[in-house]
Amino acid sequence: MRFSLIYGAMVLFVMAGGGGAGAAELGPRVKVQEISISLEPERHLVTGQSDVIFDHGADRVSLDLAATAQVESVRAAGKEIPFNFARGKLVLDLPEGDSLKVTVYYRAEFNDPVSRSPAASEDPSYGVNAAITAGGTFLGGASHWYPVPAQVPLSRKITITAPAGIEGITNGARVLRETSGKVTKSVWQESRPVGVPSVSAGPYLVEERQVSGVRLYSYLYRSNANLAPRYLEAAAKYLSFYQDLIGPYPFEKFAIVENFFPTGYGFPSFTLLGGAVIRLPFIADTSLPHEIAHSWWGNGIDVDLSQGNWCEGLVTYLADYLLKERRSPAEALEYRKQLLIDYASLVNAENDFPLTSFVSRNDPASRAIGYGKGAMLFHMIRSEIGDDAFFNALRALARDRMYASASWRDIVAAFSRSAGRDLHHWLEPWLSRPGGPRLSLAQVEKKRQGDGWLVTGTVLQPSPPFEVRLPLRLEMESGAIEKVVPVPDQNATRFAVFTSARPKRIHLDPAASIFRIISPTEIPATVNSLKGSTSLLGVITQDCQVQPEIFKAMLASLSQGDARVMVESALDQDQAASHDVVFCGKPQRLSLPSIPPEVETAYESAIAVAGGDTLLFVVLKRPSTERGVVALFQPETVESAKKYAWKITHYGKYGFVIFSAGAIQSKGTGNATGEGGVVDLSD
């Protein structure tokens, strides 16, 4: 299972193909697999039968099956055959014969605990691999809910039966849907199987439509069924968009399916969203297109992880970023800046690693690297080779590698072919080395030259240097000049810009078009500043309205579960000055940096409306002479803390959030204390 995050959303999303199309060549080829399961929600039980037809010449095979399953019997060539099942491996010695059919009869209980109000976590599954319950069923591919062969079959069919009114859905085209007596059955056929399929089942109301040759479905619970038209319309819009951009959609259907716990998953041919997620108004136009884009990248084309996971950065770029770019240049610029801010806030020397080592997100830093830095690298490639070459390369990849796997080497080769030049030398350091360039301007001077002005200076970058095409903008009284300076992988590079008008100032990469490590002065104080802190203190004041356990749980949700927590009376000035600090309640002995008046006003307004059902969380920069941030965690009551504290982590890019009356009421971010890479040239 591979993880996918939607930036800016309140939910973590998963693209879960299950390790499919590019599986290693282990064991004999599987020609056909037919799986039939029956769900018994009240008993948390699945009983199953799996028919597997192996290619000729197979004598011993190994199948993965949940370690807690019971294998009742195995048959081949019309009779029972011996088997060995231990620690999740079912090993069979097969009789001789061509295209041998093996049938496995088994049963298994799945009942992972499902939290109804899960705390914030970097695990988007909340620890649930598989659960069969009266409220719904989820069987994740990683749970091995059926006997999984070493190779993906050439053809696969899955039949799901459940008590009447409980509908099942999985990969493939729906070829049968019926209710007879006390049983509801559905049959799903994959013409080009990928990965290890997952199954969802529940009391769904089903709607469908056809668009651009693709069958669309919604499988929603009754309480959310009214949202089906909106999601089907959005799916139709984004499927058409990506087919025009990339090429034919690679699967038989696309379905929006409701889950009974608050996750968001992307599987080959369907997305599985928790009921609370589906009700969020922005999901249909933010998270949904992200999951649709994964149909090509990560599900249709599997990721060869030997060189790292490239698909999360690519999908972040093609969905989260590109759709903003299509709406507004200002939105696109803000998004690129936010990627750089997130990286600088969350990644440090201790948790950094190269893109070739990224497999999946497991903490905020890995998210900022695999998704954020990866997306910025694709933006740099596009800027370097142009739109035509960039999107032609993606179309060629989709055409040539669909239902197979691709590595970073394959991705770079495709862009090189499309650009007509070798990009490996330029891109290799960006992939294989952690970090990025720390760029600054030095020795910048202007002087008269003939009828104009010559501005000269040096671009500095400490070791290890990167090769960069650095945009500069020279502002004059009558406009601006854009210049791209080739910066080789060296520590100092001279530049010169001539202008006929008097220069006012010069900017280094003003459009945030390259990946770089921005300076602390360019980073506003945000929730992510706390997540990335390496020296955080939690301080309980006399004004704190909650028990220490609740405060510690809130810190843990910010990936600061190991932070030291102390009472304010034990905190001295030197400790406070040398750490980032989160106060529970307003401090009495030490002063906070000033809370902006607009935040105070919004907070007081929320209390006036909702009273104790209010919580403020604000992160503030210390004065410019000091380093670090200070935060205030201010729930009005224990109940408001329990209700809202775990949500704070989902607003990482913001400097303050105010919750009241059951929802987020206000959020925002203060300004950075300075502009990095700007030199004033005015007299």
TrEMBL record:
Signal peptide: none annotated. It holds the Pfam family Peptidase_M1. It comes from Citrifermentans bremense. Keywords: Aminopeptidase, Hydrolase, Protease. The keyword Transcription does not apply. This is Peptidase M1, membrane alanine aminopeptidase. Residues 289-430 form the Peptidase M1 membrane alanine aminopeptidase domain. One of its GO terms (biological process) is peptide catabolic process. One of its GO terms (cellular component) is extracellular space. GO terms for molecular function: metalloaminopeptidase activity; peptide binding; zinc ion binding.
